[in-house]
Amino acid sequence: MNSCCERCKNKLCASKIYIFENLSNEELVEIIKMTGHENYNKKETIFVEGENANKLYLINEGKIKLFKYTKDGKEQILHILSDGDFFGELNLFNKGEYNFNAQTISPTKLCTLTKEKMRNIILERPEIGLKILEVIGSRLSNLESLAQNLATNDVEVRIAYMLLELKDKYGKEISEGIEINLPITRENMSNYTGVARETISRKLKKFEEENIIKLVGIKKIIIINQEKLEDYL
Fold it and tell me: How far is 165 from 203, CA to CA, in rounded Å?
C-alpha cells in the first residue's frame, strides 16, 4: 500500500516538471522508478557551495532559494524556485561542485535523479535535454539582468526589477491588476536586491502612494500600474 502511494506521489512530482510535461503515463512511470525523495523543513540547507554536485533536484512542493555569499558575507539571492521547477542542472554533464547554496523557504518535498540516471533519460529522449538547455539559457539571461540591475545605485530600479520578476513567475490577473502572493519575506527581498530591509519597506510604500502597487499585509502585493513600474527600469 505504501509503495503504491509513493509511486503515485512520484508520478505527480514528475508530471509537474516542465521538462517532463509531454511524456506519456508509461514514460513517467519509467522515470519515477528512478527517482528518490527528500523532505525538508523551512530554512533547511539542501547543499552548500563547494559540495560535490551529483543530483538533479525536482521540486514537488515548496519553495527554495539559490544564493551566494558576497565578499563581505552578505547573502545574494540568485533565484527563487517553487513547485515544478528544478535545479542542479549545470553539473549534469561533467564532474564538478555546486557554485551556489540551496536552502528551503518553506517546508519542501523534492524528487531527485542522479547524474547517471538523468543522462540515460536524455539519451533516450533528447528533447528533454533541449528543454533543460532552454531553462539554462533563461536562467543565465536572468542572472545577467540581475547583475546589471545590482550594478546600478538606483534603489527604486532594483525594487521595480524584483517586483516584475516576481510578477512573471507568481502573478495572476485579478480585477484590480496583477496579484502576487509573495514567496519571500522582506528580509529575502533585501537579499535579492542588495537593499536594506527598512529601505525595501519604505520604497514599497512609496510605490503604493504613487498608485503603482497595493500592499495587502506582508504576504501579498497587487501591481495596479505595470507600465508605470516598468518606467523605473
Answer: 17
